Amino acid sequence: MSIEKISLSGRKTEVVDKTMTFSEKIYLPAVVKGLIITIKHFFKKKATIQYPEQQREFSPVYRGQHVLMRDEHGRERCTACGLCALSCPAEAITMVAAERKKGEEDLYREEKYASVYEINMLRCIFCGLCEEACPKEAIFLTKSKLLVKPKLEREDFIYGKDKLVISVEDAKARKYD
Ligand code: SF4
Ligand code: SF4
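Structure tokens for the assembled complex are given below, as produced in the milestone run.
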């Protein structure tokens, strides 16, 4: 009796219900064949790496941890318009807007800025829509090449401005440009 199996690729595989030969019954050739495959893998290039000592090359379109940018004078670019939060399908971004006061022109580029800006990294799916939505080029995932580090507590995955805003030195050195 033969059973016809149709694969998703459209190719047919015929399965024949035949009597096993002596060598098939003792399984020894099949065991040796399996061992040869295993031994061959010892000499192949390993697919795994010793992370974190070794790190893979990032793809040019890799999306890592978000960074909130400063301009070339070290001022925060974000104007707390909320477009990134609005475009986020995971509702991972929250912020509180504040008005820039006199004397704070060196800190914030626009008249309005985010006094609180938080991203819940457990919710984020790294889709990059926040980056695309930003009219001020203030938030980037593609430039950072940073990894969101594993932690044990859920609260540690709420990234605030202390973790997101790049340093003035990095901004002046145009590290993320
Ligand atoms: S990358 Fe996507 S999911 Fe993550 S914060 Fe941005 S818009 Fe939301
Ligand atoms: S990061 Fe960009 S889109 Fe989000 S609030 Fe700031 S300026 Fe607006």
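The beta strands are 2-6, 12-16, 67-68, 93-99, 112-120, 139-140, 158-159. The radius of gyration is 27 Å. Further analysis is deferred to the final report.
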